[in-house]
Design a protein that fits this description.
This protein has 360 residues and is α+β, with helices and mostly antiparallel strands. Helices cover 33% and strands 23% of the residues. A six-stranded mixed β-sheet has the order 4-1-8-7-5-6, with helices on both faces. The chain is globular and about 70 Å long. InterPro entries: ACP_syn_III_C, ACP_syn_III_N, Thiolase-like.
């Protein structure tokens, strides 16, 4: 028994930005970017909202729009969704949640919704949380049935995890260190509890304190001065009234060091918990932060690079959506089939990291 992925979808904005175009904005070139990141192009949401991207990915995962993958034939009714979890750093509004906006758009009239802020680990945190909630609900339903009483909590049988990101809204387009890396898009999976299937085999999540602010972005409202704070010191007043930095900031070398270590560590822990060897995994689906990080992980594990799904060349880093987008492309391209084992890994701001193994 377990949480099985029964649908997968993705959505990318229409506008494709090349490295040469970035070279017209900042001091960079295609020859500089590709060897360091593996990125050739990225999609930028000039007109699309997070709701547009998330809803399109969700509808494809449900089989209600072309371009998705379904475990079985036939579309999935959005009204059958009990919950929507949306990992995102860039919701369209502070409230309602991005998940609620997507719920309204796709007609998931019975879904309870909330957002999740865990940066580029959203793929793992979202699916792992959905798995734990589905397992807990299944136990609650079984206990209620045995005792002849109603369940004590909301019954959950199907959960949509949809990560929707517009990192272009957080990027300082004058900062070469970050603007070359990120793109926009959404990835989604529909997870269902089944008594006759393995589904998710293991998961592992961790946090590391970011004491040095190596990967950081101030909130939109940060520390605005309040009328109740009587500040007498002129320097303190000036500091309180200083505008916050609206852009993400990253210490590249420190993040690279964290990412390479965290990805391998989390993959190994997820494999151990599932009692799997690295060779048992049909395809590794990592967060697409940098192709060099992925190649490093493959080499460290002694696995051929072909066993790692790579999409960063045309998507860039789409934060928590990137691995879900990569998973969708692997399923659509038939690199993964029902019965295969996949392992997804993520790492990002927080500092967050994690991995989960699941049988398709």
């Amino acid at each position: 028994m377990g949480s099985v992925i029964i649908g997968s979808g993705k959505s990318l904005p229409a506008r494709i930005v090349t490295n040469d175009e970035l070279g017209q904005i900042v001091d960079t070139t295609d020859e500089w970017i590709v060897p360091r990141t593996g990125i050739h192009t990225r999609a930028i949401a000039v007109h699309e909202t997070g709701t547009d991207l998330g809803a399109e990915a969700a509808l494809r995962a449900l089989g209600q729009a072309e371009g998705g993958w379904q475990r079985e034939e036939g579309a999935i009714d959005a009204a059958s969704l009990d919950m929507i979890i949306c990992p995102t750093l860039t919701p369209d509004a502070a409230f309602p949640s991005q998940a609620a906006l997507i719920r309204e758009r796709i007609g998931a009239v019975n879904a309870v919704c909330y957002d999740m802020s865990c940066a580029c680990s959203g793929c793992v945190y979202g699916t792992s949380t959905a798995d734990m909630l589905l397992a807990a609900s299944a136990a609650d339903i079984a206990a209620a049935k045995a005792a002849g009483r109603p369940p004590r909590r909301n019954p959950l049988r199907r959960i949509l995890v949809v990560a929707a990101e517009r990192l272009s809204r957080l990027v300082d387009w004058d900062d070469r260190a970050t603007c070359i890396l990120f793109g926009d898009g959404a990835g989604a999976v529909v997870m269902e509890w089944r008594e006759d299937a393995d589904g998710m085999l293991s998961s592992y999540m961790e946090n590391t304190d970011d004491a040095d602010h190596v990967l950081w972005c101030d909130s939109a409202f940060c520390d605005r001065p309040l009328p109740f704070d009587a500040v007498s010191d002129e320097a303190a007043r000036a500091a309180a009234e200083a505008p916050c930095d609206p852009y993400m900031r990253m210490a590249g070398q420190a993040v690279f060091k964290f990412a390479t270590s965290a990805m391998v560590r989390c993959i190994e822990e997820a494999l151990s918990r599932a009692q799997l060897s690295p060779e048992d995994v049909t395809l590794y689906v990592p967060h697409q932060a940098n192709e060099r990080i992925i190649r490093y992980a493959a080499k460290k594990m002694g696995m051929p690079s072909e066993r790692f799904q790579v999409t960063i060349d045309h998507t860039g880093n789409v934060s928590g959506a990137s691995a879900l987008i990569a998973l969708n492309e692997a399923l659509v391209e038939e690199k993964l089939a029902v019965g295969d084992i996949a392992l997804m890994a993520g790492f990002g701001g927080g500092l967050t990291a994690g991995a989960c193994a699941f049988r398709i």
